[in-house]
Design a protein that fits this description.
about 375 residues, alpha/beta, Rossmann fold, Glutathione S-transferase Yfyf (Class Pi), Chain A, domain 2, 2 domains, six-stranded antiparallel beta sheet, 11 helices, 15 strands, globular
Length: about 375
């Protein structure tokens, strides 16, 4: 599977651009601010129908315009799929495949998977548990539509339960029978989500540890520990025991919406004790293991998007990463960098199909080089 063409119209910094991509490795080089990351974000949008970096579609529209469109042609098992995504301020987003609009965006998710490695991945370590839940939910949602449906059902149940808690608070009356309807559903759906997350992590961890060791060239002990209320006593009983707290806070304090992952190196939290190099390596290993897991589960190779990944990595770790990209991943890879010389050296080590684009800050016209 790979993306053959990419067309942008009023997408972030680009007014109108077209790229013809190689099925192998593609490099975008240029100074900061020329739109390299925006190219990768557009590919992510074509994959899942939303930006990797902006949660609000109107923030993607080019300045002084009122709409954007991104389209491209995916090749999958010798068949071409033309995907078109568009948004106009004041209207709903539209996503079409071969000119047919989806009834629900969830029908598109997972068809053309991508893995995005970005400097912003540091938020997985630095920020709260919501970032880490979004990470593994995103992986599972792309590979299993039933999981996506579970998450959506759980979110609706959670919203209904929280609405009821607010009503109880305002009326100063707690109706146990009314809340029990949602407690039963939250327990049932939450248990299924927990089981899926637990199974995923057990399958994911061996690959992650191996890849971290290869990139770091060390035997540092890395671990990812899953934290969930479902690991403790009977969850339904937890809801009952925590009813008074929920009523006071007007919010559901127990459930899989509170799950978290603890990242450690040598038994210590990466956030507090990991160096910049260790944290960067941890995150890259996390994403490359994600790539391997998705490739295995989905029976197709995701497109690998690598955005400015060489920052804060020493030369040894860069070489290890280059070796992984050049010899282990035969699917489409798209890399950005600010250093033309470093990108050229990288491409010299890569065999097979490849194409290098130089982006100019003035006109942003790509100058592809067949290598």
């Amino acid at each position: 599977m790979f993306l053959k063409t990419l067309n942008l119209l009023n997408f972030k910094s680009f007014s109108e651009k077209e790229f013809e991509l190689s099925e192998g490795v593609n490099g975008f080089v240029g100074n900061n601010g020329v739109g390299k990351t925006n190219v990768l974000d557009a590919i992510h949008y074509l994959s899942v129908g939303k930006s990797y970096l902006n949660s609000i579609d109107r923030q993607i529209v080019r300045f002084d315009e009122d709409f954007f469109a991104v389209s491209g042609t995916w090749l999958l098992e010798n068949d071409e799929y033309n995907v078109h995504c568009s948004f106009k301020i004041g209207s709903k987003k539209k996503v079409r495949c071969n000119k047919k609009e989806y009834d629900k965006l969830s029908e598109h998710i997972g068809k053309f998977p991508v893995v995005f490695i970005s400097p912003y991945d540091g938020d997985l370590i630095a920020e709260g548990s919501e970032m880490r839940r979004k990470w593994f939910d995103g992986i599972l949602a792309q590979s299993d539509k039933s999981y996506l449906e579970l998450i959506q059902r759980y979110q609706r149940i959670l919203e209904q339960r929280n609405t009821l808690l607010k009503q109880f608070y305002e009326s100063r009356h707690f109706d146990k029978d009314s809340i029990d309807i949602w407690d039963v559903q939250m327990t049932e759906i939450g248990q299924q989500i927990f089981n899926s997350r637990k199974s995923f992590l057990a399958d994911f961890l061996p690959d992650f540890k191996k890849i971290y060791g290869e990139i770091a060239n060390s035997e540092e002990l890395v671990e990812i520990t899953y934290k969930s209320h479902f690991q403790e006593e009977n969850f339904y009983q937890q809801l009952k025991n925590g009813a008074q707290k929920d009523a006071h806070t007007q919010y559901s304090n127990f459930g899989v919406h509170k799950d978290d992952l603890l990242f450690t190196i040598g038994g210590h939290p990466v956030k507090k004790f990991g160096s910049q190099g260790q944290q960067k390596t941890f995150l890259i290993a996390l994403r490359i293991a994600q790539y391997d897991w998705m490739k295995r589960q989905m029976k197709k190779k995701p497109v690998l998007l690598l955005d400015d990944i060489f920052d804060k990595l020493d030369n040894n770790r860069v070489q290890k990463l280059v070796k992984l990209v050049a010899t282990h991943y035969l699917g489409q890879v798209i890399i950005t960098d600010t250093d033309p010389q470093r990108m050229s050296q990288l491409f010299e080590q890569i065999e097979g199909n490849k194409k290098l684009f130089h982006l100019s800050p003035s006109i942003q016209e790509p100058e592809p080089q067949e290598l």
